[in-house]
Amino acid sequence: MANVVVVGAQWGDEGKGKIVDWLSERADVICRFQGGHNAGHTLVIDGKVYKLHALPSGVVRGGKLSVIGNGVVLDPWHLLTEIETITAQGVEITPETLMIAENTPLILPFHGELDRAREEAASKGTKIGTTGRGIGPCYEDKVGRRAIRVADLADAATLEARVDRALQHHDPLRRGLGIEPIDRDALIAQLQEIAPRILQYAAPVWKVLNEKRKAGRRILFEGAQGALLDIDFGTYPFVTSSNVIAGQAATGVGIGPGAIDYVLGIVKAYTTRVGEGPFPTELHDEDGQRLGERGHEFGTTTGRKRRCGWFDAALVRQTCATSGVNGISLTKLDVLDGFDTLKICVGYELDGARLDYLPTATDAQARCVPIYEEMEGWAESTEGARSWADLPANAIKYVRRVEELIECPVALLSTSPERDDTILVTDPFAD
Ligand code: GDP
Ligand code: IMO
Ligand code: MG
Questions:
Q1: Which phi and psi angles does 246 have, rounded to 5°?
Q2: Residue 300: predicted pLDDT
Q3: Atom 6, ligand 1: residue with shortest CA distance
Q4: pLDDT (tens digit, 9 = 90+) per residue, 362-390?
Q5: Distance of alpha carbon 292 from alpha carbon 271, whole angstroms
Q6: Within-domain flag for 35
Q7: Which helix (H) or strand (E) holds 371?
Q8: Average pLDDT, whole number, for the chain?
């Protein structure tokens, strides 16, 4: 297969970064196609930890082209800082290895301010628990046709006109929230100061990728967040502001949907969620605490404690369908070591009826009671296992049951944060 899309199949933090880094050995180009620096992707290579937010996880390998597509919202100041941090860790980033789509909307300081002010002003039950990074307000500006895009940095007159247009919308909003007006001239000066450093990476990404494709180059698409945070198919309104599912890979860079040969869903062997919103299998007991501690479940971006719960096969079957997942990478199996009993949610009970999917209405989602199947756990360690032969029989049974319930095969299995503690079953790039 030439082109592979990696998507999170739960509420994010499934281990996409580790798997994208692992797979990037087989790819020529690695592209981000949605989200922004709300993402936090952790890579561990020979004990060295890399935390990426806006940069594609392929940058660490070197010798690959990393692409930030138009479907992304980009905070240019954050990007420059992240480049500095990663460069200090010994990774080389140049205009030859990093390309940013010219039509990518920019996250500006007032987007973050608005995001945080709204969250502070929200009453109980309406707070989303965003990362506070301005993601939602920037996507609103994109759809509202008042965003400032990378290409606008090249011309002073255009930039000023775009800033004025954005301020026309934002100043009244800010007034309503009790925030002081934006200092127009200071903002323009700030943007002009960083313009050359951003523009050196700017390119018509759609064109470059279509040429790469024709030349037979392999493209790996790196999703951020997870399908349950998708703006259309997630647990709305407790979602992020972009389409996260695999179809977005095409529109988020400018290639045809026919270019996608394989969709790899990243699935954690249990479930986590950061922020507010329904979570049917959430645990508030010792088992939940144990998952959080063994899995080090703290957010890479905000440091917040992640909510933890049992594996929800009904939800993952649903997300595999909406993204057309061909195979999954099951991660963090090792975190389940030592549990006497494991539970898997196979559906829900709602008002006396049995459902095999999560309904759309928020109140119905909140009232869904999980129906569990129990499985015997395993006492042995799976941490660092690199072949099926290293796995205890009950761990294999768990993996096989997951495959049956979600109706999708396991292509990769991950047993620790380390790059090479990965078991390959089916190579997504194999023809
Ligand atoms: P992403 O947002 O999907 O890239 O995931 P994050 O990086 O936010 O969170 C996943 C965390 O789990 C990271 O700290 C990874 O280093 C770690 N991780 C990934 N795969 C495994 C695994 O198989 N086992 C364990 N124990 N940790 C893993
Ligand atoms: P990665 O790529 C987990 C969640 C936030 C919040 C909601 C909206 O690391 O998997 P936003 O700032 O996007 O407007 O917040 O989405 N969220 C994530 N949760 N992993 C992520 O990214 C997330 N990105 C956003 O916690 O609930
Ligand atoms: Mg993450």
A1: -60, -30
A2: 76
A3: 13
A4: 999 999 999 999 999 999 999 999 999 99
A5: 10
A6: yes
A7: strand 369-376
A8: 97
| Whole-prediction pTM | 0.98
Averaged pLDDT, 399-417: 98
Ramachandran quadrant class, 74 (left: phi over 0; alpha: psi -120 to 50; beta: rest): beta
Residue nearest ligand 2's atom 27 by CA: 275
Tell me the average pLDDT across 239-265. 97
When divided into structural domains, the chain yields a total of 3
Q: Say yes or no: CB of residue 16 within 6 Å of ligand 1.
A: yes
Could you say which of 174, 198, 222 is where a domain stops? Answer: 198
Catalytic residue among 13, 115, 152, 312: 13
| Domain boundary, last residue among 168, 198, 228 | 198
- Is residue 189 situated within a structural domain? yes
Q: Determine the structural domain holding residue 338 and report its residue range.
A: 267-424
Residue with CA closest to ligand 2 atom 3: 12
Is residue 352 domain-shared with residue 299, that is, in the same domain?
yes
Q: Are residues 279 and 353 in the same domain?
A: yes
| Active-site residue identified among 21, 37, 41, 334 | 41
The answer on pLDDT for 1 being more than 70 is no
Active site residue 41: yes
Across-strand partners of 44?
A: 49, 418
Would you say 278 and 365 are in contact if contact means Cβ atoms under 8 Å apart? yes
Q: Are residues 151 and 282 in the same domain?
A: no
78 is catalytic: no
pLDDT at 40 over 80: yes
Query: What is the domain-level CATH number for residue 311?
Result: 3.90.170.10
Does the residue 409 lie in any domain?
yes
Contact assessment for residue 79 and residue 55, using Cβ atoms and an 8 Å cutoff = yes
**Band of pLDDT at residue 431, cut at 50, 70 and 90:** confident
Which of these, 9, 28, 36, 17, lies nearest to 252 by C-alpha position? 36
Looking at the structure, tell me whether residues 146 and 214 fall in a common domain. no
Same domain (yes/no): 50, 167: no
Q: Does the residue 62 lie in any domain?
A: yes
- What percentage of the chain carries pLDDT values higher than 70? 100
Q: What is the 239 CA–ligand 1 centroid distance (Å)?
A: 21
| Cis before 237 (ω within 30) | yes
